[in-house]
Structure formats: structure tokens, C-alpha cells
Request: fold
Amino acid sequence: MKKVGIVMGSDSDMPVAEKAIERLKDFGIPYEVHIYSAHRTPAQAKAFAEGAEAAGFGAIIALAGKAAHLAGALAANTTLPVIGVPVKSSTLDGLDALLSTVQMPTGIPVATVAIDGATNAAILAAQIIATGDEALSATIKEDRAKAAAAVLEKDAALSN
Ligand code: RP5
Reply:
């Protein structure tokens, strides 16, 4: 199975990254976690993106806050799908990171999820990997059915 790369701009992003790690573990998807910054370690971020396809990755999740250029910088150096997670790590509550991540120029897409939306990033990465993996696709469908059943259980428990 192809791996998912989780790249964060700083170790301070780890509490958000943990949510993606947890969900990938639940799905049994192999992953690697790295700290590479678009600004502080641009050469390492570029090298990772350039080598990711050959290294067996099928998708990359990039988490960054503030002037969050990491997802775009990785996407500029690979044709693998890049999922951007804007991290709430500043006085602007993550809106800065959201706009920096989502407003990519035509030709270099980043699939941006919600501020701190690392769980959805992991689910989307899983869905991308699952396009070539029937067993994983079935697992994701089961997971979604369980989530729906949990909502319906809560509805049934309402006293009206
Ligand atoms: C971004 O700046 C990082 O992704 C992080 O969200 C934010 C703050 O980084 P630290 O100053 O905590 O290392 O590049």
C-alpha cells in the first residue's frame, strides 16, 4: 500500500498532526511524519516533495500555521495530491493560514481542509489511496456507515 506523508512546519503543529496520525493508524495506512518548513528549511521541504513519489508515497498532508506556504511549496515540487491543513497558531486564529493555504494559483492545486481539520485530511488521504485498493475502500465505507449509525442512535435517544 502507498504511504501518506505528514509534513508539518513546526513541532508546535504536532497536536493537530496527531489527529491525522490517529486516523491513518485506524485505517492501517502506512505513514511517515516530518518537520520541514517552507521558510526555515526550504531545501529539505523541496527535496522531500521531489522524492516523495519515488519513495512510495501516494498523498501528502501538509500542516502549517501563520503565513502557511508549506502545502503550496510541496505541491510545487510534486504531482502527488497535497492536502493542506491550515493550523490555528497565531493571533489571527488560523484565518491567515487558511487563506495562505487555499488561495493557490491555477496549475498547482492544494486540497485545503478546515482550520485544524487534520482528521478530514487523513480521511481524504485514505480515500485517495483507496482508489487503488479495494480493501481500504471497503474499510472507509464501513467507517462512514458506523459514523452515520452513531448519529441515528443519538437521534433515536432524543425524547420527543
Ligand atoms: C508555522 O509557524 C508553523 O507551521 C507553525 O504553525 C507556526 C509557528 O511555528 P513556531 O514558531 O511555533 O515554530 O511556520
Summary: The longest strand covers residues 57-65. The chain has a mean pLDDT of 98.
